[in-house]
Specification:
By secondary structure, the chain is an alpha+beta fold. It is built from four helices and four strands, in the order αβββααβα. Strand 2 and strand 3 form a beta hairpin. Helix 3 runs parallel beside helix 4.
């Protein structure tokens, strides 16, 4: 890992810790956390009180892979992941969430995932 990449990763983790000081998932309002890698995006709904992952989805999940097209760009794939996690959360009875962007800027793929989750009926 180059020095520049290491610094970027460390800075993102510091931003994530700053965000996590303020955002905490409860049973009534769990936390939707996002992780973005170079190729894929992952999202999970977490209840921090019990430390349990309630719902998860990613571009590697079989139910999401069925909906992805061959020529979709990464933002469109993120929107599909948001829609799938929103539908799974609604099936579990979860309507309201706290959004944890994971130290990433709220634009691009992270914003597309949030928009997809909102389209499926989640509120945050």
């Amino acid at each position: 890992m180059s020095k520049k990449t290491l610094k970027r990763t460390v800075m993102r983790k510091q931003r994530h810790l700053r965000v996590r000081k303020k955002i905490n998932g409860t049973t009534e309002r769990p936390r939707l956390c996002v992780f973005r890698s170079a190729k894929h995006i992952y999202a999970q709904v977490v209840d921090d009180g019990s430390g349990a992952t309630l719902v998860s989805a990613s571009t590697l999940s079989p139910d999401v892979k069925d909906k992805l097209g061959d020529e979709m760009d990464k933002s469109a794939q993120s929107k599909v992941v948001g829609q799938v996690i929103g539908q799974k959360a609604r099936d579990q009875g979860i309507n309201t969430l706290a959004f944890d962007r994971g130290g990433y800027l709220y634009h691009g793929r992270v914003k597309a995932l949030a928009d997809g989750a909102r389209e499926s009926g989640l509120t945050f």
